[in-house]
Amino acid sequence: QTTNCNSTMRIGNLSYLPLLWACCWQGMVCSAFLLQGPRKHTAAGRQAVSSLHMNLLTDIGDMLGGNSNQLQAQQSLPYDPAFCSDLSLSSDDRTFAVQERLVSFTGEDFDMVDITGGRNEPFVRVRGAMLHLPGKDKMRLYNSRSGDERLVLDRKLVAATPTYDIYRAGMGAEKIGWIEKKLISMTDTFDVYMEGKGGFGVTGLLKPPPAYRITGDFLDRNFVMRNENDEVVARVSEDWVFEFDAFNHYQVQVAQGMDAVLVLACLCAIDEEFDEEHKAKREAEEN
Question: Residue 246 to residues 43, 50, 126, 228: CA-CA distances in angstroms?
Answer without folding.
Answer: 10, 12, 20, 38
